[in-house]
Amino acid sequence: MASQQELPAGATIYETGDVSKGAYLIQSGKVDLMTAENFRLVTLGAGEMFGELGLVIDDFRSVTAVTRTECTLILIPKKTLEKKFKTADPAILGIFRSVGIRLREANRQKDELRQALDRVQKNNIRLQQELERYKR
Questions:
Q1: The pTM is what?
Q2: CB neighbours (10 Å) of residue 50?
Q3: 65 closest CA partner among 77, 53, 57
Q4: Taking the CA of residue 128 as centre, how many other CA atoms within 13 Å lie in the half-sphere pointing to its CB?
Q5: Three-state DSSP class for 136?
Q6: How confident is the model at residue 59 (pLDDT cuts 50, 70, 90)?
Q7: How many Å apart are CA 92 and CA 85, to the nearest integer?
């Protein structure tokens, strides 16, 4: 049975690595999906769903979900979704799984690129500081 949740801004809905309990439908508000390194991948709004990939690909969350604003969410329990997946056309389920795997990989690569950019920026600052010392 689906249940409604009211959450304040800044609330953690779930974290990377958590076991999936279901998917969420946003009734109102905005939710950020973040990497384990705290890099925002996307902001979702009313009418959008998140948390479903953990049920199709595996049982663990690949991102952290945090409310950006005050939110009303509907939790669709894991058992409800599993029943729907069992009766779904295998071709549609296969497509959904493939897209989910590609999305997870794209998110991982995006996170790696962000970390590489952070390293380049830190090295740039360090090099600028060294250059300033040589100018003196």
A1: 0.77
A2: 19
A3: 53
A4: 6
A5: coil
A6: low
A7: 10
